[in-house]
Write a structure and sequence with these properties.
By secondary structure, the protein is an alpha/beta fold. The chain has a single domain, classed as Rossmann fold (3-Layer(aba) Sandwich), CATH 3.40.50. Helix content is about 45%, strand content about 15%. It contains 7 helices and 7 strands. A 7-stranded parallel β-sheet has the order 3-2-1-4-5-6-7, with helices on both faces. Bound molecules: ligand 0WD. Ligand 0WD binds near residues 63 and 92. It is an enzyme of class 1 (oxidoreductase).
């Protein structure tokens, strides 16, 4: 029963119950998916454990994408427990808070590298490992933001990372298409999460979207989750390399 019945998926990037990854995980679980969640460090483990229990999900372990051994361990763990997976959600991004304010031109080389590595390269790193566990095809989904396409105040180096992430979606889609693995992104409108709280003037961005998006409101993690279902389930079986906006239509006016 359900759009995701019989499907198993790994969801990376749940930090708490406000995380977009949690909204997607909830939507998948409600449609019958079996889930595995990763967490970044012990502090987040405490938050993720009860969410995993609520979703009947297994914990696939600690994963910091800057530590390839932790990535390998997570995928080895999944392979051991499940053998294969049908989908993967990548909802991971990071940049130094000090540089999500002010001007892009002031980005340091260190934070540029870190931001691009964690927010962009990590999708490729997980796709390399997921490919081996998606023998009969699969669906990989990442999260991006409109700041990849247009200048946005304070988004700075994260906008550059998201532009590279969106290009990665297209290249990965071409590489993995012959094996029936689809790679897509949801470009979500602004949502108040832990990661978003690091962005300068975020409340103003939310308000601006409320006033100017065609639907005259912001989106919720539940709405992002429901749209993600289309790309993760067989409903989206003909779709790959796509950047799907779930943003109350803001991208047509902004
Ligand atoms: O407005 C928003 N919130 C939008 C977010 C609009 C459009 C897109 N997005 C994207 C983000 O850029 C990100 O890619 O959605 C994705 C999920 O972000 P979120 O749900 O907004 O934020 P959050 O709940 O904080 O989850 C992101 C998590 C991290 O949380 P914190 O806040 O502790 O950094 O990404 C994970 C971590 O759990 N993460 C990592 N995971 C593994 N290794 C790493 C890392 N090195 N760094 C961050």
């Amino acid at each position: 029963k359900g759009l995701m019945a019989g499907k198993r998926g790994l969801v990376m990037g749940v930090a708490n119950n406000r995380s977009i990854a949690y909204g997607i995980a909830k939507a998948c679980a409600a449609q019958g998916a079996e889930l595995a969640l990763t967490y970044q460090g012990d502090a987040l483990k405490k938050r993720v454990e009860p969410l995993a229990a609520e979703l009947n999900a297994i914990l696939a372990g600690h994963c910091d994408v800057t530590d390839s051994a932790s990535l390998d361990a997570v995928f080895a763990n999944i392979q051991e427990q499940w053998g294969n997976i049908d989908f993967l959600v990548h909802a991971i991004a990071f940049s130094d808070k000090d540089e999500l304010d002010g001007r892009y031109i002031d980005t340091s080389a260190d934070n540029f590298n870190k931001t691009l590595f964690i927010s962009c390269y990590s999708l490729t790193a997980v796709a390399q490992r997921a490919e081996k566990l998606m023998g009969s095809g699969g669906s990989i989904l990442t999260l991006t933001y409109y700041g990849a396409e247009k200048w946005m105040p304070h988004y700075n180096v994260m906008g550059v990372a998201k532009a590279a992430l969106e290009a990665s979606v297209r290249y990965l889609a071409a590489d993995l298409g012959p094996q029936g693995i689809r790679v897509n992104a949801v470009s979500a409108g602004p949502i108040k999460t832990l990661a978003a709280s690091g962005i300068g003037d975020f409340r103003y961005i939310l308000k601006w979207n409320e006033l100017n998006a065609p639907l005259r409101r912001t989106v919720t993690i539940e709405e992002v989750g429901d749209s993600a279902l289309y790309l993760l389930s067989d409903l989206g079986r003909g779709v790959t390399g796509e950047i799907h906006h779930v943003d109350s239509g803001y991208h047509v006016v902004g």
